Amino acid sequence: MNLDNFEQQIDPKIVDRGYDYFMHGLVYNLENVSHGMWRAKVNGTVPYQVEIHVEDENDREIKSWQCSCPYDYGPVCKHVAATLFAMVEVDHTEWVNSLEKPQTTRFEKIKTIFKNTSKDELREFILSSFDKVEGFENHFWIHFADRLDVDTDRKYRIKIKNYIQAAKGSDGFIDYYSVDALINPLWELNQKAADLIKTGKMRESVKICRTLIEEVAGVMHYIDHSDGSAGQVMEQAFDFLMFSTDRFPNDLRDELFTWCLQEYSLEKYRDFGFESYFLEILADIVTSDKQEKQFLDLLNRQIDEGNHSSNFEYRNTRLIKTKIRYFQRVNRDKEVLELLEQNKDFYEIRRLLVDRKLEEEDFDVAKNLCHEGITLAKKKSHPGIVTQWKEKLYRIAELQNDVPEMRKWAEKLLFGGFAAMRWYRLLKSTYPENEWEARREEIIQHIQDKNNDKYSASRNMLEQIFVEEEFTDRLLKLIQPYADIHTIDQFAAELQEEYPREVLELYEQGISNYAHNTGRKHYRKITGWLHNMKKITGGDEWAYRLYKKLLRDYNNRPAMRDEFFKAFPEWATMG
Fold first, then answer.
1. Least C-beta-crowded within 10 Å: which of 22, 33, 233, 568?
2. Where are the domains positioned within the chain?
3. pLDDT tens for residues 468-487?
4. CB 211, CB 155: distance < 8 Å
5. Distance CA 40, CA 513 (A)
6. What is the dihedral of CA 308, 310, 312, 314, to 10 degrees?
7. Is the CB of residue 283 less than 8 Å from the CB of residue 295?
C-alpha cells in the first residue's frame, strides 16, 4: 500500500469515515518519531494511538500499521485511514529534512520531565489541574475509581457516571463525534461482566450489568443514536443477565427478581422498548409460588393494557411469548397449548403453533394454519407475512416430498419478488435437466413480458438469471441500453473475458454519465472504476484516454484532479 493510492485498497466506508475524522481535525500530534515510523493520536471514543511504518528507502510506501482501537472487522480502521490522510498533507520535503536531524520524541521529553520532577510537584500539579484543565477531573475519576474505598456497586456507578459526564458537550448532549468516547469503556465493562461470569464471580458481574442498565437508560434521550451503539450496550448487559440466570444461587435470583420488578415500572425504559427485557429475565428466575403470582399478575396486567395500545400486536406478542416461555420452563404444556390456540391471530404465536404441529407431523393442520395465516395477513395488508407463510408451505411440501406443491410455492415466491434467485434455484432443483430448459425459457419469457421499466425488479431478476445460467450474450444485450455504471461494474467480471471491447465501451459511457456528480467521494469512485477498466484486455489505454478527457472536461475541479493524481501517479507526470 502506498500513500499515493491507499484509498483504492481500503474499504470505501472506512475511507469515508477516516476522511471525515481528518477533516474534523480529530488527528493530532502527528510525528515522525524515527526512521520509517510515524505516530499520531486520533480522537475517537477515547484518544487512540496510531503507528504507521513506511519503507526507509521509499517513505511513501506503507509497510504496516496498528491502532489501539478495538476495531476487528477488517485490516484498516477509520483511525488509521484518518492518519494516512494527515500524512498526505505533510510536505514530502519536510519529511526528508526532519530525518536529517537528530530528534527528541515527545515520549522522551516527558520521561525527562518526570525524572527531574518530585512527587510533591506532580501531586500539586494534579490537584491544580482539577480546576484549570477542562475534562481533567472526569478523566482522573474514570482512571482511578477502582482505588476508592467504597462498595462495588458504588465504584461502578462512579465510573459510568464519569464516562457519561466526560462525553457530554456544553449543552449536556452526547453528539456523534463524542459517542465513541462513552461507548468504548462501557463495552469494556460489559466484557468484564462476561469474564466475571466465566470465573464464577456472579454477584460482581450482576452489579456491573445492573448499573450499566440503570445509568445508560437515564441518558438515552441525550445521546446521538445514529449508530445504535448505546442501545447495544444495554442489550448486551441484559443478555448477560438472561443467559446466566441458571448459574445464579437462589438468593441472587431473589435479589434480581426484586430489582426487575422495581425497574420495570420506571418511565426511562419505555421509549426505547427495554422494559420487556425485565419480563424475560423474570420468566427465568421465579423460584416460589409467591413470585410466580407476582410475575403472572404483572404479565396479565400488561397484556390487558396492551389491548388498548396502538402497537398492541407487537407488544402483546412479546408478552404472550414470555408467558409461554415460562410455562415451558416449568413443564406446564397444557397452559402452553391454550395460549397458542387463544392467540393464534398473532403471526408469531401462529408460527409457534405451526412448528408444534410439524414436530407432531400433523401436516394437514399445519397447512390449514398457514392458509388461514395468509388470509389474515392479506386483511391486515402485511405482504411480508404473506410471503413468510408461503415459505412455510414450501417447507411443509419439502418435508412431505410433494414435488408439485414444492414447484407451486417456489414459483409463487419467485415471482413475488423476495429473494427471487433463492426460489429460482430451488425451483430448478425440482426438474430433471432435460425438462428444465423449456421451463426456464417460459420463466424468462414471463419476466421479459413484465420488464417495461429499466429500473424494474424484473430486469434485475433477468440479470441474475443470465449470470446463473452463464448466458453472457443475453446479459450483455440486457444491460447495454442503460449504461448504468453500477450495473456495468457489477457484471463486468462475467462479461469482460468474452466481450472486453463492449465492456470498456459501457464503462466509458457509464463513467461519463456519472461524472456530473461532484465531491471527493464521487471522484474516488470514478478512480476505482478506472482501475477496474485497466484490468480488462486493452483497458489500460482506454482508461487513460477517459482519464484525460475527464480532466479536460472538468478542468475547474481541483479536487477531482487531486484525487486522480493520487490514484494514478504514473499518469500524473505524462503529457
1. 33
2. 6-115, 470-572
3. 999 999 999 999 998 899 99
4. no
5. 40
6. -170
7. yes
